[in-house]
Amino acid sequence: MLDTTEIKSSLLMTLQMKLKVADKPIRCIALGSDNNGRDVVLTGAGEYGDEEALLRWRRDPNNALWINDPLVDIGAQGRRRNGIPSPTSNN
After folding, report:
1. 26 near 44, Cβ under 8 Å?
2. Strands (E), the chain
3. Virtual CA dihedral for 50, 53, 56, 62, nearest 10 degrees?
4. Phi and psi of 28, rounded to 5°?
5. Residue 48: closest CA among 81, 26, 80
6. Which run of H or E residues covers position 49?
7. Nearest 5°: CA angle at 80, between 24 and 70?
8. For residue 49, which of 19, 42, 72, 81 sits 20 to 30 Å off, Cα-Cα?
């Protein structure tokens, strides 16, 4: 049996930056890579049509920090976002 009192470990972490990822809770995360083989992360938060609901994250090669770029539906730009009526509504 292993005596756990003999195991000692330490971890030093330094906070470099504190940023808010999204205004609403992240609902989904997808991992992948771009055409050049670089890692890409997609995050979805909020609802369709919300500002910055879908973000594409890439790692900056100069400082290894993750940078996000908002993705937008260009077909929906300029249109007013309408909610989907519930089955019980009389619209």
Report:
1. yes
2. 26-33, 39-45, 54-59, 66-71
3. 90
4. -150, 150
5. 81
6. none
7. 45
8. 19
The number of beta carbons lying within 10 Å of the beta carbon of residue 53 is 20
Q: What are phi and psi of 4, to 5 degrees?
A: -70, -15
What is the C-alpha R_g of the chain?
A: 21
pTM surpassing 0.85? Answer: no
Tokens of 51: 């500002």
Please, which residues have CB within 8 angstroms of residue 45's CB and are 6 or more apart in sequence?
21, 22, 23, 24, 25, 26, 27, 52, 53, 55
CA angle 79, 80, 84 (to 5 degrees): 115
Quick: pLDDT tens for 35-79.
999 999 999 998 888 888 899 999 998 988 888 999 887 776 555
Q: Identity (one letter) of the amino acid at 44?
A: G
Strand partners, 28: 44
Give residue for tokens 């000692």: 8
